[in-house]
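User: Could you write out the 3D structure of this protein bound to adenosine-5'-diphosphate? I've included everything you need below.
Assistant: Certainly. Input first, then the structure.
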Amino acid sequence: MKRILSGIQPSGALHIGNYFGMMKKMIAYQDTSDLFAFIANYHAMTSVHDGEELAKHTFETAATFLALGIDPEKTTFWVQSDVAEVQELTWALSTITPMGLLERCHSYKDKIAKGLAASHALFAYPVLMTADILLFQSDIVPVGRDQKQHLEVARDLAIKFNGSHGDTFTVPEAEIDDDVAIIPGTDGQKMSKSYNNAIDIFTTKKELKKSVMSIVTDARAIEEPKDPDTCNLFALYSLFVDGDNLEELRDRYLNHPLKYSDVKKELVALIWDYFEPQREKREHLLANPDEVYRILADGAKKARAAAAETIEKVRRATGIAYHV
Ligand code: ADP
Ligand code: TRP
């Protein structure tokens, strides 16, 4: 069975773009692969500098992922910092990482352009991400297009290390699913927690209504035919209904008087109902943190066992294991 690995940063509330773009797919992998999924809290440290906030997001992201369907019986699920060996591997990899390789990474420049402080950690981020991947001998890493370059760094470093120190790492492959649509936010741009256009998965009904009601639509009058294929509201609605129901909405857009505000009200109900069972599960987990801690501790134990083998090989290969 192929080992698939992915991480998500606990840098804020999760939105439906995260769910349909990444989490749903990860959850489905549990049945067909050896899934390793983790909460990338060391990565989130590059942007969240308030300790209380980072701890809260880490716990809540873990509870949310579990509520949405991560099954710790099937999947190795842990918090990145609970397997601190990843830092040791980051250092070992740093010693063979050419500066030029990191200088070419555009995500660093993009983040600076967005206003993040130009820290060393932000610059070295792809090396930590490489360590995440190589530590667990991952075969496949499903990522969005924005992470493609980081996967190239991971492959380059794996090949370089194997070349100079002998076969140590599985060379990972990126799985970039071009079919996974970019989920639009309320303003029609890519939904993102940093653009203030996100519809959160778990929020109060009042907040949900507020976000959905703010979805931007065109100014066509009620009686005018409307274009489902360019409508942001339609795109979001289509995530929650299938074939016939979607065709029915398409027909209403094209052939009947239609008030966007009615469609928005329906969408609020659809989103609320879609996540209803998971909402209850999440509430339960948030109220019982010990249950979450136990699951994460078990996950970390499994992950650490896998990491130990790699770290041992790396220590020997690099000479850090000095006992004769
Ligand atoms: P954000 O842009 O809100 O900060 P992240 O960059 O943390 O989101 O993304 C976490 C995961 O969710 C990534 O795998 C990313 O590809 C996916 N994702 C985020 N936003 C979207 C979106 N609008 N559509 C599809 N997938 C998304
Ligand atoms: N950098 C990824 C993101 O911002 C998160 C991440 C960290 C990751 N380590 C990883 C994803 C390893 C895949 C594999 O979305």
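Residues 5-7, 9, 40, 43, 129, 132-133, 141, 143, 147 surround tryptophan (ligand 2) (CB under 6 Å).
User: Perfect, thank you.
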